[in-house]
Write a structure and sequence with these properties.
The chain has 101 residues and is α+β, with helices and mostly antiparallel strands. The protein is globular and about 40 Å long.
Length: 101
């Protein structure tokens, strides 16, 4: 099933969202990379805590009609995930953007 992806601009960065079943979801990879965190380690952490953040892979369709999984979470859970990242444990270059988000 194709989902209508919507690009939202947040602090000058692009974030991908979509709605399903009345719930707005956000694609996590773009957010993680926008902040400056390592996607590989963050995706593992997200999947280990998928019950807490209600996240998981959702199949989306790209412009060429190909299916691919996208790790997403409900937008309402995003502040919880962000609050779990200790700004003192990220590099000084990443910290200001993390705190803005």
């Amino acid at each position: 099933m194709g989902r209508e992806l919507q690009t939202v601009y947040f602090h000058g960065d692009e974030i991908v969202t979509f709605e399903e079943g009345g719930v707005r979801y956000v694609a996590m990879r773009r957010i993680v990379e926008n902040i400056g965190l390592d996607w590989k380690s963050q995706s593992v952490k997200l999947m280990e805590q998928k019950e807490k953040f209600h996240c998981g892979d959702i199949t989306t369709v790209d412009a060429k009609g190909r299916n691919y999984p996208m790790l997403c979470m409900p937008v309402e859970k995003l502040p919880l995930w962000l609050a779990c990242i200790n700004p003192n444990k990220v590099s000084e270059t990443v910290r200001p953007k993390l705190e803005r988000y």
